């Protein structure tokens, strides 16, 4: 009697994929830090919606119960944490998000969300097509120039300056590696958020008189200035 043929084993396919995440770096007192988060949500209700979030606890000394309370406070604000870093593994419980390592910080200030990414690129980037809603462009090593527009819900992250030759309706974050001299230029400002070296303004902070017009943004000390582009 012949033995039955053994079914062919199916190999598991593993694929690498990187994501852009907000990294929260809590500071004490935690209550005041949470108020800053609330202020950001109040200005832009959908700011953290659907975004991966990592909590970096390296700046605080929280007990296991303190970490649990912090995670619960973020969940109450509809902020779901996918990972934790900057803490001893023994302080985490099995029900908490996993401990992460190896993320590359892109230098936003501690009270604001940081960006994390792992891709190395050439020294400049030119995009001849629009950045559409839902797309993210990350270029930590230099300027980004976009000949088209940046759609609502899209995101552009650059180590240097950002130049948009069309409308800027999404989010633009320049100077993310600590380059405070970076600038943001666009031919039509309708941005959801502008950030340079960690200092940012949301749509509600931008002068209504500038909406729909050519504009530039730069840092003057620790203050972001947004003016007409003449």
TrEMBL record:
Keywords: Cell cycle, Cell division, Septation. Gene3D superfamilies: 2.160.20.70, 3.30.70.260. It comes from the Bacteria. Coiled coil: none annotated. Signal peptide: none annotated. Residues 127-226 form the Septum formation inhibitor MinC C-terminal domain. InterPro entries: CAP/MinC_C, MinC, MinC_C_sf, Septum_form_inhib_MinC_C. Interacts with MinD and FtsZ. Belongs to the MinC family. NCBIfam families: minC. PANTHER family: SEPTUM SITE-DETERMINING PROTEIN MINC. Cell division inhibitor that blocks the formation of polar Z ring septums. Rapidly oscillates between the poles of the cell to destabilize FtsZ filaments that have formed before they mature into polar Z rings. Prevents FtsZ polymerization. This is Probable septum site-determining protein MinC. It comes from Bradyrhizobium iriomotense.
